[in-house]
Amino acid sequence: MSTEDKPFFDDPNAALREIAENRDAYAHYLADYHRVVLEMQAKLEILQRETRVHCRGNRVEGDKLGQAFLRSFPVEKSLNDVLKNLKSISSGLEKSAHKRHAHDEKVKEVKKSRKEKAQLKARKNNPTLQATPENPGQQGAQSPNPGYGGPTSIYNLDRRESA
Question: Is 13 helix (H, G, I), strand (E, B) or coil?
């Protein structure tokens, strides 16, 4: 059966596709999962504490000093590994939501910068003609050096270097 025979609403991934397209829906969806993961993590931390107390306190007659701890160590380690994985899942969900938001911001910046580059390129390829400013007093003469003023009197030589 091809996909053309199925109606659109039968697509199981349609809702997730819409969520992936909208950054706010994406963040909300991941926040729901994050909430669930945090609840599981809290309950497993309580379970870990209670298991530790029970397993370490469960002594058999004739045990030496650390044997109860050694027997409980594999159980505690497995719960610690699960909790560590849940913490990494939780931080990964947060990072994913932030990176999704940053992606949309970057797309906006790229669109804006490309538009600006296109405008600059268009201006460079088609420069506008500007009229040259006219100075009625200096027609045909070279412009004076901007570092020096006009002719000075010999009495002003103390402020200027001699030639």
Answer: coil
Identify whether the C-beta of residue 24 lies closer than 8 Å to the C-beta of residue 80: no
43 vs 39: CA distance, rounded Å: 6
Angle at 77 between CA 59 and CA 68, to 5 degrees: 10
| Burial tier of 135 (Cβ tally within 10 Å: 0-12, 13-18, 19+) | exposed
If you search the block for the tokens 């992606």, which residue do you land on?
103
Beta-carbon count within 10 A of 27 CB: 19
Q: Kindly tell me the number of DSSP H helices and DSSP E strands found in the chain.
A: 3, 0
* DSSP summary character for residue 111: H
Distance of CA 143 to the CA centre of its chain: 54
- Structure confidence at residue 85 (pLDDT): 95
Listed as ranges, residues in the chain with pLDDT below 70 are 1-9, 129, 131-163
Q: What is the largest CA-CA distance in the chain?
A: 118
Residue 46: the pLDDT is 95
Residue (of 26, 28, 23) closest to 103 by Cα position? 23
**pTM of full prediction above 0.90:** no
How far apart CA 151 and CA 143 sit, in angstroms, is: 14
pLDDT, residue 12, reads 81
